[in-house]
Amino acid sequence: MTTVDFHFNTPDRLLHTCRLIRKAVRSGQVSESKPLLVYCSQTERLARFDDLLYEFSEDDFLPHVMADHPLADESPIVLCPNAVTPASPRQAFLLINLDDEVPDCFSSFDRVFEIVGPEDDDKASARKRFAFYRDRGYTIQQFDLSKTTR
Predict the structure, then answer these.
(1) Is the pLDDT higher at 57 or at 140?
(2) Quick one: which of 59, 75, 139, 143 could link to 65 by a disulfide (CB 3.0–4.6 Å)?
(3) Can you give the pLDDT at residue 88?
(4) 14, 49 in Cβ contact below 8 A?
């Protein structure tokens, strides 16, 4: 069954997501054979995230493409404005949801990351997503980033 991780009180959702992806790539959880999918139906937010993946670190290159790109079947990181699951043999195990709604395909993944910023509207939509997962019996892990030091 899918496990859901909520990272909340994240000062910068997109930057935190970049760091999370870098960690997953470095640990080997993400590769060409095990892609990670980043979902967001809001094209402007997804475009900002796309740019940030290139800019956030001079030391790390995180190869990624949009889902409609010709290299999407080879890229370890796929950015997607539609709730889809990559076809076998490249079954994605990790999903990062940057959207305000739960994507329909979430249960196809072993692990879903919900990234929540400090803004009231973001927290409100996250509470709805949290209740959705909880009410259906999914295991939820919570990480309060306001309690961590950098």
Answers:
(1) 140
(2) 75
(3) 60
(4) yes
